[in-house]
Amino acid sequence: MDMPVAFNIQNLGIESINNITITIEGVTHTFDEDIIKSGDTKKLVVFFPVPDPVDDIHYTITAEYADSKDIKSGILKLDMVDVAIDKITVTKEKERERGFNIQLSNKAYGELKEGIHTVELKIYNSPDFDMSRPIAIETISDKERLELINDGALSLDMVLDEDGLKEFLNEDGEIPDGGALVFFNAVVIENEEIIEDAEIGNDMNYILIRSLVEKYGMPVNIGSMLHRTEGHTEVKIEAFNNSINGISNGNFVAFLKDENGKILEKQQSYDPYNGLSSLVQIHGEESFNTSLDFAQEGALVDVFFTEINENSTKLSILKMDGVYLDFKNDVYQYDIDVKDLKKTFILAEAEDPESTITTKQDGSSITISQLVTLSNGINRFVVTVVNGEQQQDYIVNIRNHSSEDSEEEDNDDYNSGEVDDRETENNSTMTVLINGIQHRVSIRIIDGNAIITIEALEGMSFAENENIVLTIPRISGAKSYTLEVPVGLITSSSDGLITLNTPLGSITISRNMLSAMSENLDKTTSITISSGDKSLLPKKIGDAIGERPFTKFTMSIDGKEIDLKESNRPISISIPYTLKGDELFNAESMVIWHINEDGNVGSIPNGVYNTTTGTMNFHTNYFSDYGIVYNKTNFKDVENNKWYSKAVNFIAARGITTGTGNGNFSPDDKLTRGQFITMLMRSYGITPNIHPADNFADAGNTYYTNYLSSAKALGISQGVGNNRYEPEREITRQEMFVLIYNALKIIGRLPEGSSEMTMADFTDAEQIESWAKEAITLLIEKGTITGSSGELNPTRGTTRAEMAQIMFNLLSK
Q: Quick check: 45 and 59 in contact, CB under 8 A?
């Protein structure tokens, strides 16, 4: 039987490889048409007959350059095992547990043997297996199951119990929106030692688990069955709590109707006379059964589940017959379009049964569940909940169209949350969120650009320091989204922010960003987020971005784009993207590239992929074009299972380090002062002084020379005395922390928050020099420095691996 053997050949030389020969046990394979350029990698596959019995085989690879050869030899260990996770299926979604069926197989020629091998299948909440502990483990060591793995036929069931599931929940005790990834890792132990497998199959796999609330679109599922007898109706109710959190204050409300939909009677499970004892309690992700009796016969029944909250002025139910009303009790205004609706009635229930509810239509009082007539045009309903001296109004504006309305209005599809691009160059209306509240506004759609103006927001006014958050839903066919605001709104001295959220991305700017352009107060500023045209990019850049987002962020005044490259006002940007394939296990290698008008690329070091939100987030000072790139860098001396591997991958992907040469990072080498100042300034985008007029006397003429000039000019470093920096000397931890503090202070990025730790918490604090105390005190209090075993070790040196971890911790916050 012939076995395919794949070799990944990477050319680490300067010249191209013109010829490759691979010799396995005396059999030579030549590849003379596969030129491998400097820095490139190519996979070459040869076929070799598997020996019987299975034994190790020797190979030699010869790479021929124009004037030289490079020869590498090695051993292929065939008598190895390789346990792969072929498939994972979710089998249980209830009772605050998740069950999984996992299919395992041995992809290699070696066999798992009882008494020698043990397979451990582990569950994690992160792909960083070496940096986190497993949440659940299944151990396989018996002969029957090991042989099933050898045969490729083991089907294994595992359960993530209630305690284990907690590791995947958000601060509200629920599985986050969008779901959570559960990671599985298969480990083979041979004679009580973990062994490396043959790396044929995938010993790591994952599956998405979802919140049942998100999956079913509601917190509680209700099923009901109506049973009629003469003069009597019984309604049997079964409810399932989709939330992981239990409910202790539930109430079933049922409206019995006749065949025409007229309400005959209302019943509820809550009894105000029995109070708390009558409240429905449903454990998380469990079901509950009950029944309600009516004293008359009915044809239909509407059953709702509500929660009782004393002293509340909120509604728990708001429904209008014939009207799509996506009710949320913390949203107080709804603007809805309907067509040819003649009549409706309102159902409303308060969270506190002791509250009173009044309803008005266009200023006139109406009765809950009373059939009311709708006129063409705007019909305004106000539902008021009164509880003691407190009250809350819910406003529903229904715009009733007739069949004789214009075709433009007839095509208005508000309820879908999208606007069809057939309305190009016409005005349309839709609902957006302004500071969390729904507002019906006009949107112009011109050549695929959806444009909304602040002035269209029903005359809203904003306080001086108020933050403004505008969220626009997806619009069918829209390739860009534009927010138009008066220049005066972002030229004030306000400390407030403006955030534009769109399906293509989000941007947050300061309301004083254009404070230097007050002469333009009578003009309009446009902020646009659009999908860029990758075909216009240089091929190398376009290929690197691939199918990932390429997004343009621009700002203009009266249609003329303005250049803010010199602005010191921070801009926060977020671009949505779903990780795929290897990216799921190497999120730290996701980077954001800035592409300027000349097609040149620069990495944004603070760009970090947030696995919870599924977005690439970063800070910058200018509007530009940005692309998401997967830039995995492999160093020969950084193994994937090392504690620092993720941190090294992070800084290498961003160009903060290029290693020490010959494909190495040298993680255990001591860090020098020159290496650190270079990587620190690259981390925060502080550019080197290309033509230094003033520098330290020992700055030399090497990779750190221009960085030292900038560090001196900006005040990041004052040197060690006598205009010297000592770049080749090993840096101490306290020197490193002072340089970090100075750099962050210069660029206005000092950490915020509090760790509740102080200098007094460390036993060696007296070793800190006076010139370092201010910096280290702040970094301790903000949680940047945590020490080790109660010590700071201020005079100790730092390895390059430790430096990578420090920069990773700073930049990934």
A: no
Cβ atoms of residues 266 and 205 within 8 Å: no
Q: Is the pTM of this model over 0.85?
A: no
Q: How far apart (Å, rounded) are the C-alpha atoms in residues 81 and 150?
A: 9
Q: Which tokens is 517 given? A: 């352009």
List 470's β-bridge partners, or say none: 434, 500
Q: How far apart are CA 361 and CA 229, in angstroms?
A: 38
Nearest Cα to Cα of residue 39 among 546, 588, 633, 543: 633
The answer to whether 777 touches 760, Cβ cutoff 8 Å, is no
CA-derived radius of gyration, the chain: 33
CA distance linking residue 348 with residue 358, whole number of Å: 10
Task: Return the pLDDT at 54.
Answer: 61
In this prediction, residue 423 carries a pLDDT of 38
Q: What percent of the chain has pLDDT over 90?
A: 45
CA pair distance 466, 634, nearest whole angstrom: 47
* CA distances in angstroms from 672 to 679, 680, 711, 727, 731, listed in the order given: 11, 12, 16, 6, 5
Task: Give the pLDDT of residue 428.
Answer: 62
> 525: phi > 0 → left, psi -120 to 50 → alpha, else beta; which?
beta
Sign of the CA dihedral 446, 448, 453, 456? positive
Residue at 507: amino acid letter? I
Kindly state the tokens that stand for 477.
Answer: 């066919």
H/E segment holding residue 211: none
* Nearest C-alpha neighbor of 528 from the set 548, 557, 549: 557
615 to 505, 530, 607, 627, 712: CA distances (angstroms): 9, 16, 10, 12, 36
Considering only CA atoms, which of 691, 753, 756, 687 is closest in space to residue 716?
687
**pLDDT at position 553:** 94
* Cα 696 from Cα 725, distance rounded (Å): 6
Residues 88 and 206: beta-carbon distance below 8 Å:
yes
DSSP β-ladder status, 608-610 and 615-620: antiparallel
From the list 778, 742, 774, the residue with the least C-alpha distance to 758 is 778
Q: How far apart are CA 386 and CA 394, in angstroms?
A: 12
CA dist., res. 763 & res. 774, Å (int): 18
> Are the beta carbons of 541 and 627 closer than 8 angstroms?
yes
Cα(477)–Cα(413) distance, integer angstroms:
14
The pair of structure tokens assigned to 15 is 């010249």
| pLDDT beneath 50, residues of the chain | 406-425, 456, 458-459, 566
Q: Which amino acid is at 723?
A: N
